[in-house]
Design brief:
This protein has about 220 residues and is mainly alpha-helical. The chain contains 10 helices and no strands. Helix 6 runs parallel beside helix 8.
Length: about 220
């Protein structure tokens, strides 16, 4: 419980924790940020790490000169791309071994073929949209690997989505993160960045579950 409390405090007050880290450890902050973004996007069991809020706060800190804007963009983009590549590789490697292919009663080859076809046709949109969805962005590249989405196609949308995500949110933080209203309500903004995408995911899942029933009628 103590770990959860500390993690929640870090997520909701990431601006204060990051500023203290910069003042204490200087340029080591770039290594810390790289590690957080890489782990959040590259380790499928770490979807709870701050992503959107961290990028926004980094942009705000760049806006007041505490950090370098181009260096932050470059490092965080590299972390986001490499993290997704790692997650994809894990899914591609472990997926067949988990199912044990046709030798296992748990493996449904038809379902696998459908998943593969879906990711080849719509996976690009899914991967780009997932970048802006907490939790979902951690699992989407793993599922793409399990579904055997071709690496060249995955890499194209990995880089595209990563550039939009990192570049977009850091830049928004750079220009708007230091407004008095934003700084005064940053905790509420962080909650919104977590909850709104989550509610959209739940709504989409609920509608997806209802649609087959509607088709049957």
């Amino acid at each position: 419980m103590e770990f959860i409390a500390l993690l929640l405090d870090f997520i909701l007050h990431v601006d204060k924790h990051l500023e203290v880290f910069v003042q204490t450890h200087g340029t080591w902050v770039y290594a810390l940020l790289f590690l957080i973004i890489f782990v959040e996007t590259g380790v499928v069991v770490m979807p709870f790490l701050p992503g959107d809020s961290l990028l926004f706060v980094v942009g705000a800190m760049c806006g007041v000169g505490l950090m370098s804007y181009p260096l932050s963009i470059g490092l965080l983009l590299a972390a986001a791309i490499l993290g997704n590549q790692s997650n994809y590789a894990l899914g591609r490697y472990f997926g067949p071994r988990v199912f044990k292919w046709e030798n296992s009663r748990y493996f449904n080859k038809n379902a696998f073929n459908q998943a593969h076809a879906f990711y080849e046709k719509y996976g690009g949109v899914t991967l780009i949209a997932a970048r802006f969805m907490p939790f979902l962005r951690t699992f989407a590249p793993f599922v793409a690997g399990v579904a055997q989405m071709t690496r060249s196609r995955f890499t194209f949308f990995d880089v595209t989505g990563g550039a939009l995500w990192v570049g977009g949110i850091v830049t928004i933080g750079y220009f708007f993160g230091n407004f008095p209203f934003v700084k005064a309500h940053l905790d509420k903004i962080i909650w919104a960045m977590i909850l709104i995408p989550g509610l959209l995911i739940l709504l989409g899942a609920w509608r997806a579950r209802r649609s087959p029933a509607a088709d049957v009628r």
